[in-house]
Amino acid sequence: MIRLLKKSMRFDAILPQSQCRIDAILPQSQCGQCGYPGCRPYAEAVGLQGEKINRCAPGGEAVMLKMAELLNVEPQPCDGEEQQAAPVRMLAVIDENNCIGCTKCIQACPVDAIVGATRAMHTVMSDLCTGCNLCVDPCPTHCIELRPVNETPDSWKWDLNTIPVRIIPVEQHA
């Protein structure tokens, strides 16, 4: 663990600050849907090689707009299926009756959203799942599928970074 931490710190020292800021915008799902093996390589490609800013499927339009603002470039229409105005959040669901506990999905999940033990039923922690689809193919019993998450008032979670904040000085209040 310490060796991994040292490598990460060393990598941050080498990586230019603009790539670090791009990487901070990305959702860190490490899904590879952009064509790169993770968020950091994609951030490098955007910053150093001029890669398109519209390839992050989990981040969708919100991430693309933040990258456009950071890099001072024109926003680009999202690639492929992400062209929806409001992308639907997907969630991996395991059919627990057919799960054999092989742990292949756990090993494939880049965000550790799947819990379970060898030869025991597995389940997905919905708060952590990014819907990246990396757990579906390794499953030998095909008991994992992605389903859209239907937001209701009870399941809604506010993204506090999108709520506008206005600071009113104390002297104006009196």
Automatic annotation (TrEMBL):
Please list the GO terms describing molecular function: 4 iron, 4 sulfur cluster binding; electron transfer activity; metal ion binding
Q: Does the keyword Transport apply?
A: yes
Please give one Pfam family short name: Fer4_21
One biological process term from GO is:
electron transport chain
- GO CC, alphabetical: plasma membrane
Ranges where the 4Fe-4S ferredoxin-type domain occurs: 90-119, 120-149
Q: Where does [4Fe-4S] cluster 3 bind?
A: 109, 129, 132, 135
The question of whether Ribosomal protein is a record keyword is answered with no
Cofactors: [4Fe-4S] cluster
Keyword tags: 4Fe-4S, Cell inner membrane, Cell membrane, Electron transport, Iron, Iron-sulfur, Membrane, Metal-binding, Repeat, Translocase, Transport
Which residues of the sequence carry a binding annotation for [4Fe-4S] cluster 1?
Answer: 31, 34, 39, 56
Textual note on the cofactor? Binds 3 [4Fe-4S] clusters.
Q: What is this protein called?
A: Ion-translocating oxidoreductase complex subunit B
Q: Lineage of this protein's species? A: Bacteria, Pseudomonadati, Pseudomonadota, Gammaproteobacteria, Enterobacterales
